[in-house]
Design brief:
Layout (H helix, E strand, L loop, with lengths): L2 E4 L18 H12 L6 E4 L14 E3 H7 L9 H13 L22
Parallel strand pairs: 1-2
Antiparallel strand pairs: 2-3
């Protein structure tokens, strides 16, 4: 059994943002393609979940096969150009993470769902 851990820095099967400094849609696409070359049964543990509409439970684990089939960002053989256009448009519409009163920004992990 193969395991992979996806993070915002290396690859993000539930994709990260491309509008942060030193990041680009092209870099993200290349990183994702490396993961998609792994065996379809490779398990991927993602660092976040957006709890999409129609799904009650958090999804912190997936497989390469599931991502190829169901990920709207990378599935279906999207070209790098189509991926970059979609990601750049989407990410430009997002706000920056909100800092706390001291000005710090945190990564939050709901450990009670693991």
């Amino acid at each position: 059994m193969r395991l992979s851990w996806a993070t915002r820095c290396s690859c993000p099967i539930l994709p990260p943002r491309c509008d942060f400094p030193d990041r680009s849609a092209e870099q993200l696409f290349a990183s994702i393609q490396k993961i998609l070359t792994l065996q379809d049964t490779t398990r991927i543990f993602v660092g976040h979940d957006y709890n999409l509409p129609g799904r009650d439970a958090s999804a912190w684990e997936t497989t390469v096969c599931d991502q190829k089939a169901h990920n709207v960002h990378i599935g279906g053989g999207n070209s790098q150009e189509a991926f970059a256009k979609m990601r750049e448009t989407r990410d430009a519409s997002l706000g920056m993470p909100k800092p706390d009163a001291a000005g710090d920004v945190f990564l939050k992990l709901p450990i009670n769902t693991l």
